[in-house]
Design goal:
Length: 222
């Protein structure tokens, strides 16, 4: 009986000890929680800052792959070569005449030209101008009044030269500016002789320009 009583006492003591330990543990938990938890009136905030990395800042450029456009090949019909039309040159001894009323063209054969006539025409010019015979003709006199007054100038005359070399009509073409000089030139040239002009070696009458210049020397000035 005594052994059973001792076991009961030990069991009761163990239970009491466990209860005491439980109370102490609960008190510790309350103490810790009172230290860790902040007061109700105190507000604390945790700032969270999001830092964007440099790689995120760089814009992402999309890679665009170009589409290949189909090449359209046009089929061209091969045209035959255009026929070459040969233009025949008209011979030099053919003269082409055009009829204005009907629009038709008539080809007339021109007579051939002998080579001897061509050579003669090339050797001699067709027209040769008349030339004064300066070695035989007297120069116009220089009027004394014109010399004293210092008159100078060029008189241009239009002279008709006959086929025999004599002078026909003389016309004043350009004046020297002084009537006395113009008159002296006109009177003198009317008496001149010329080598007559010719056409294909035949003397003809023609009109030529003859300049007459009046000029004073330094010693002749008054």
């Amino acid at each position: 009986m005594e052994g059973i009583t001792i076991q009961r006492d030990l069991a009761a003591a163990f239970c009491i000890a466990m209860v005491i330990h439980g109370i102490v543990a609960a008190a510790d938990i309350r103490t810790v929680s009172s230290v860790v938890l902040p007061k109700e009136n105190t507000k604390q905030f945790l700032d969270i800052v999001f830092v964007q990395s440099e790689e995120a800042k760089r814009p992402v450029t999309p890679i665009v792959i170009p589409r290949e456009k189909p090449v359209m090949v046009r089929k061209t019909k091969s045209l035959g070569k255009k026929p070459v039309i040969e233009k025949k040159q008209v011979e030099k001894n053919m003269v082409v005449r055009e009829d204005m009323s009907t629009g038709n063209q008539e080809v007339v054969m021109a007579p051939p030209v002998e080579q001897s006539h061509i050579v003669a025409a090339q050797a001699k010019p067709p027209v040769i101008s008349a030339v004064p015979r300066y070695e035989e003709n007297s120069p116009p006199p220089y009027p004394r009044i014109a010399q004293r007054r210092g008159y100078e100038g060029i008189v241009m005359l239009s002279v008709e030269v006959r086929s025999d070399g004599t002078v026909g009509t003389v016309v004043l073409k350009e004046s020297s500016g002084h009537a006395i000089l113009d008159t002296a030139a006109l009177k003198t040239v009317k008496q001149w002789k010329f080598r007559p002009g010719s056409r294909f070696g035949v003397p003809i009458t023609m009109v030529v320009d003859v300049p007459v210049r009046f000029m004073l020397k330094e010693s002749e000035f008054p």
